[in-house]
Write a structure and sequence with these properties.
Blueprint (H helix, E strand, L loop, with lengths): L1 H27 L4 E17 L2 E16 L14 E6 L5 E5 L10 E9 L5 E5 L7 E13 L2 E4 L12 H29 L2 E2 L13 H5 L6 E5 L2 E2 L3 H9 L6 E7 L2 E7 L2 E5 L2 E5 L6 E2 L2 H28 L10 H12 L3 H20 L6 H14 L5 H31 L1
Parallel strand pairs: 4-7
Antiparallel strand pairs: 1-2, 3-4, 3-5, 5-6, 6-7, 7-8, 9-16, 10-11, 10-12, 12-13, 14-15
Helix pairs in contact: 1-2, 1-6, 1-7, 2-5, 2-7, 2-8, 5-7, 6-9
Protein name: Zinc metalloprotease
Cofactor: Zn(2+)
Membrane topology: Multi-pass membrane protein
Length: 418
């Protein structure tokens, strides 16, 4: 249960901040965001605030921000259709009732002659056959009611497609960008709370049964020399210890201003076929705001580079397809990492966030990178690609992505449970 909770919190946070990036920049561009969803499938929780409905859905496999105009608008009122109208006090239409009109006693019933819900923002029709044509202006906001569900009408200037290429690209790019920012913030927080490693010849935390503690070394000791060789960094100390298994080493350390000589004999350990010496001591850690920010940036850069290199190995065949993991594999790994402590779990979350950002930037249909690729083509052509054709490409890409997810999940189940 703890593993499930840890997985849901981490994965939910990654998806939330990813979608939050889309949401913030879409709102800044003036796009109507109809829904902010975590997960897919049936709704588990729903709450409407302002123009947006916030939902949690059953399948924790991602999320989405539904922007007006990204998909064909659901509003379709045709000539000859009978609808009901509800009005504001200023006489403008606040709701257009498509069906179940008898449930709205105050509704004015008209037969539609023409309607423009995008640019003109009006509806015209006849209340009775012998009446003259009446024109009604739509209020801002106005809603269309279908099957008792209200959908806010989005004028063209509130739709995704009406925005500049830069605004649309930023609204899409902001999702992966937020994942990198989240990782950076997590690494900074770890640095502030736990500290960050520094390459200084200072003894860090000691293990309970290591050779260092038995020889009398203490945390905070400054290593001046080992076997007469001056130590200028922690890297120098580690190098000397690793190459001296079961060899007594003469440490000269500075403790509280006094010089102390100690003999430490590294234990012999074999790791991945290599025999090295260990004394049971960790490297030095420091805490500072500036240092934590610097370390956070370095960690974010390092893991971004490692994940990109890993993807390159996958494409060139150096990594096999079986090495990919989906939600099941991530959950199993989360369980293992959680046993090591909260800081390791935080770091794991940051690495997953970077991974999510990079994957979403791949130029594949249905991913943010695929959308950005179409924007790049639009910039080169000077005009957008036909939306229907682009939609078909993304739909096929999404179907293939779901198929890949099923295959990877089955591989995970076989790997860990069968």
């Amino acid at each position: 249960m703890e593993t499930v909770i840890a997985f849901l919190i981490i994965f939910g946070a990654l998806v939330f901040f990813h979608e939050l990036g889309h949401f913030i920049f879409a709102k800044r561009a003036g796009i109507l965001c109809r829904e902010f969803a975590i997960g897919f499938g049936p709704k588990v929780f729903s709450m409407k605030k302002g123009e947006t409905t916030y939902t949690i859905r059953l399948l924790p496999l991602g999320g989405f921000v539904r922007m007006a105009g990204e998909d064909p608008e659901m509003i379709d009122v045709k000539r000859g259709q009978v609808v009901g109208l509800l009005f504001h006090s200023d006489g403008k239409v606040k709701k257009v009732i498509v069906n179940h009109k008898d449930e709205y006693e105050d509704a004015k019933i008209i037969e539609v002659e023409r309607a423009d819900f995008e640019r003109g923002l009006y509806i015209e029709g006849y209340e009775n056959e012998d009446d003259r044509l009446q024109r009604f202006e739509l209020s801002d906001p106005a809603y269309i009611v279908i099957d008792r569900e209200e959908v806010q009408i989005a004028p063209y200037d509130r739709q995704f497609g009406s925005k500049t290429l830069g605004q649309r690209a930023m609204a899409i790019f902001a999702g992966p960008l937020m994942n990198f920012i989240l990782a950076l913030v997590i690494f900074i927080v770890i640095g502030l709370l736990q500290g960050y490693p520094v390459d200084k010849p200072i003894v860090g935390e000691l293990t309970e049964d290591g050779a260092a503690r038995q020889a009398g070394l203490k945390q905070g000791d400054i290593v001046i020399s080992i076997d007469g060789q001056p130590m200028s960094s922690w890297t120098d100390v580690v190098t000397m210890i690793r190459k001296s298994p079961e060899k007594p080493l003469q440490f000269q350390v500075k403790r509280n201003g006094q010089m102390i000589d100690l003999t430490v004999t590294p234990e012999k350990k074999t790791i991945e076929g290599e025999t090295i010496g260990l004394i049971g001591v960790y490297g030095p850690m420091e805490k500072s705001v500036v240092g934590a920010i610097k370390q956070g940036a370095l960690e974010t850069y390092y893991w971004t580079k490692e994940i990109i290199v890993g993807l390159g190995h996958l494409l060139t065949g150096k990594f096999s397809f079986d090495m990919l993991s989906g939600p099941v594999g991530i959950a199993v790994s989360t369980h293992k990492v959680a046993q090591s402590g909260v800081y390791y779990l935080m770091k794991w979350g940051a690495i997953l966030s970077i991974n999510l950002g990079i994957i979403n930037l791949l130029p594949l249909p249905a991913l943010d990178g695929g959308r950005l690729t179409f924007f790049a083509i639009e910039a080169l052509r000077g005009k957008p690609i036909d939306r229907q054709k682009e939609g078909i490409v993304h739909f096929i890409g999404f179907a293939l992505l779901m198929l890949l997810m099923l295959v990877v999940t089955w591989n995970d189940i076989q790997k860990f449970f069968l």
